[in-house]
Design a protein that fits this description.
Elements lengths: L1 E3 L6 E3 L13 E2 L10 E4 L7 E6 L5 E5 L10 E2 L6 E7 L5 E6 L5 E5 L13 E2 L3
Antiparallel strand pairs: 1-2, 2-3, 4-5, 5-6, 6-7, 8-9, 9-10, 10-11
Amino acid sequence: MVNREQNDGALGTLVEKTVGGTWSGYTNTAAQGGMGTPTVVSSGGAVPGVLVFARNNNYGVSMSKLTSTGAYGPWQDMGGYCELGPVAIRDSSGVVRLLAIGADGGLQERRQTAAGPDAVFNDWRLAGL
């Protein structure tokens, strides 16, 4: 589970250790602050991964990937301007699509160029174009 801290908006994680059992302690992910609910998605590809996206202090979107150690890696600023969102989904081809409402009220999208956790994302564009 990824959630925001109440005092400064930083993101942190809790991990369920056993099904219906105990949870780990809270771990700060060293993310920049921001607002809104983060979104988590598993990527497609031969070796799927977990990606988390969140609105940052600059009203853009930042992304982090779950590493093999079970911790999230460094945050990458994906730019753009996010009035509402973001939301991430994986489509039927395994490609992650990142959606947000932009400054003009339009639905903006960044889409991976291929399936997999390390695939790059195209630039922001109006969804459906």
